[in-house]
């Protein structure tokens, strides 16, 4: 396939599934695609699912005459319904199909949007489990594949399959060689559908009397897919997660230019106590964490109080190690609790 930069449209709405949207944005941009995130609302800022706020690059209404190599729809409710009811988007997707260009959708969007618009008739497609009957009702052959390709349409199941879905889209746009390059960078599990395992050293009891209070700091060039995955999953588990921005602006631009909005500035919660502090990575974002004295002090207090803290990607190396936060505590009666990941 040609290696020239491909253009991709990702529309978002209030109630869009943020993990799906952000994962698609970051993976496709890592793969070299020119991704436009467009709000179908009347403003670029959207309130996605799980209390996560995102900011689009533009309004869909401003780019309806644009042509893309791929249009890909995230899921989420009521976001999926809003996409379905957006007539300009429907027209763009239908023209995309009639012109022989790629369309893709995940979660509820295959059934609610592509299926309702008549684009799945006679095709194999997959989607979120509770939407499989609705998918079949659109005259599609509903299959339980994690990712399904039929002609110029690609569909997938939900948040847990988004990385595979996005990588499949990269293969459709750029070919297998680019996929192999991305897999090594993203550290994707070789068999994503299998149960995962983890190693726990110096086992300790994780228990909280009340709803866990968790802090997830973000900064410019944080790895946005890691930040959103942490927040999305922890909030699904009913934890009270506070997203705190380092600096003087709630809006943060991640490492792949995805625009996120924090709940508070870190300065506003620097004196508060949390049950867990967990840092996303980012090769440029993690050093910013390390240079934030207030955050480092919060982590040191967390360690002294024997409360858990965690980091992923570059954060353990840039933040924990230089500040002695990976060392075993001198007191034998206390266990340092650290969670880290690649």
From TrEMBL:
<dbReference type="InterPro" id="IPR050325">
    <property type="entry name" value="Prot/Nucl_acid_deglycase"/>
</dbReference>
<feature type="domain" description="DJ-1/PfpI">
    <location>
        <begin position="213"/>
        <end position="330"/>
    </location>
</feature>
<keyword id="KW-0677">Repeat</keyword>
<dbReference type="Pfam" id="PF01965">
    <property type="entry name" value="DJ-1_PfpI"/>
</dbReference>
<dbReference type="GO" id="GO:0005737">
    <property type="term" value="C:cytoplasm"/>
</dbReference>
<dbReference type="InterPro" id="IPR029062">
    <property type="entry name" value="Class_I_gatase-like"/>
</dbReference>
<feature type="domain" description="DJ-1/PfpI">
    <location>
        <begin position="6"/>
        <end position="172"/>
    </location>
</feature>
<comment type="similarity">
    <text>Belongs to the peptidase C56 family.</text>
</comment>
<dbReference type="InterPro" id="IPR002818">
    <property type="entry name" value="DJ-1/PfpI"/>
</dbReference>
<protein>
    <recommendedName>
        <fullName>DJ-1/PfpI domain-containing protein</fullName>
    </recommendedName>
</protein>
<dbReference type="GO" id="GO:1903189">
    <property type="term" value="P:glyoxal metabolic process"/>
</dbReference>
<dbReference type="InterPro" id="IPR006287">
    <property type="entry name" value="DJ-1"/>
</dbReference>
